[in-house]
Specification:
167 residues; mainly alpha; 76% helix
Length: 167
C-alpha cells in the first residue's frame, strides 16, 4: 500500500479522530477543552466533506451497485454533523456538553466501523493502485485547502440528491 493510497490516508485519519476523542477527557480547563473540541469538530467536517468529494463518488463508479453504502454514509455524515453542532448548545465541560460529545463520538464510531468493514475494502478491491494514489493526492490537497473547515458549509446533504449528482 502506497503512502498516497486514499484508503491508507482515510484509515490513518480514522485513527487520529479516535485518539482525539479519547484524549478529550484528559484535557484540563474549559478554554483548552473548547479549543480541542473545535479542532476535532472541524476535522470531522473536513473528513466527511473530503469523503463526499472524492471517496464516495469513486465508490459509486466502481461498486455500490444498489447505492446502499453511499446512502448510509451520507446519512451517517449528517448524523455526525448534527451531533457535532449540538455540542455548541451546552456549556463546555458540563455533563450535558459531555453527553453531546459522547453522542457525536458514538455516531462517528458507528460510521467509521461500517466504512472500515464495508466501503474501504470494496474500494480497495475494485480500484487500481494508480487511481487510489491519485485520489490520495486529491485527499491531501482537499485537507490543505480546507484546513480548519475553511470554506465548508457544515450543512447536511440529501442522500438521494447526492447519489443522483454523483452517478
Amino acid at each position: 500500500m502506497s503512502d498516497l493510497d486514499i484508503v491508507a490516508l482515510v484509515l490513518q485519519e480514522h485513527q487520529a479522530i479516535r485518539r482525539t476523542f479519547s484524549s478529550l477527557e484528559s484535557i484540563q480547563g474549559t478554554d483548552a477543552l473548547a479549543k480541542e473540541w473545535q479542532e476535532l469538530a472541524d476535522r470531522l467536517e473536513v473528513h466527511a466533506s473530503a469523503e463526499e468529494s472524492m471517496l464516495y463518488p469513486k465508490l459509486l463508479r466502481v461498486g455500490d451497485d444498489d447505492h446502499a453504502d453511499t446512502d448510509d454514509a451520507i446519512r451517517d455524515h449528517n448524523d455526525i454533523r448534527d451531533t457535532a453542532h449540538a455540542v455548541a448548545d451546552h456549556e463546555v465541560g458540563t455533563d450535558a456538553w459531555w453527553d453531546a460529545v459522547r453522542a457525536c463520538q458514538e455516531s462517528n464510531e458507528h460510521h467509521l466501523d461500517e466504512e472500515e468493514r464495508d466501503v474501504l475494502p470494496e474500494l480497495k478491491e475494485k480500484t487500481d493502485q494508480a487511481a487510489l494514489d491519485e485520489l490520495g493526492v486529491q485527499w491531501l490537497a482537499f485537507h490543505e485547502e480546507h484546513e480548519s473547515a475553511k470554506g465548508l458549509s457544515g450543512e447536511d446533504k440529501d442522500p438521494e440528491a447526492y447519489i443522483e449528482q454523483n452517478t
